[in-house]
Amino acid sequence: MLRSAYQLFKDTPARRENYTSVTGSSTFPLKFVAHRWVENVPVLERVIDILPSLKQYVKSVDEKKLKSPGTKSFETVKTHAGILCWV
Q1: 4-20: pLDDT as tens digits
Q2: How many angstroms separate the CA atoms of 35 and 38, rounded?
Q3: Alpha-carbon dihedral of residues 70, 50, 28, 42, nearest 10 degrees?
Q4: pLDDT band for position 69 (50/70/90)?
Q5: 20 to 30 Å CA-CA from 57: which of 13, 37, 46, 72?
Q6: What is the largest CA-CA distance in the chain?
Q7: Are 47 and 5 in contact (CB under 8 A)?
Q8: Angle at 26 between CA 45 and CA 79, to 5 degrees
């Protein structure tokens, strides 16, 4: 989930613009590094902070307000954002 959230908006200015316009947030996920797990605390904290915005973005895509990215990273974020409803 952490890697996919970062990949979803990496090097995609149009997707970043859509996210910002729908959510009003310009805060994006940080890069996840699998072999430096101690350094991933800020990455996890950022995802927890922006989880409502990620859910709003996914909802906008589901409601066809935005074009679906059609990527594996989007599908992973979509799946896990629904599971993480307790946050």
Answers
A1: 999 999 999 999 999 99
A2: 9
A3: -120
A4: very high
A5: 37
A6: 38
A7: yes
A8: 55
DSSP string, 10-27: TT-HHHHHHHHHHH----
Q: Which residue has the tokens 């859910």?
A: 55
Chain-centroid distance of CA 37 in Å reads 19
CA dihedral 32, 35, 74, 58 (to 10 degrees): -40
Q: In this structure, which amino acid lies at residue 55?
A: K
For residue 12, with 0-12 CB atoms within 10 Å meaning exposed, 13-18 middle and 19 or more buried, which class applies? middle
Distance (Å, rounded) from C-alpha 6 to C-alpha 64?
22
Q: Is 55 helix (H, G, I), strand (E, B) or coil?
A: helix
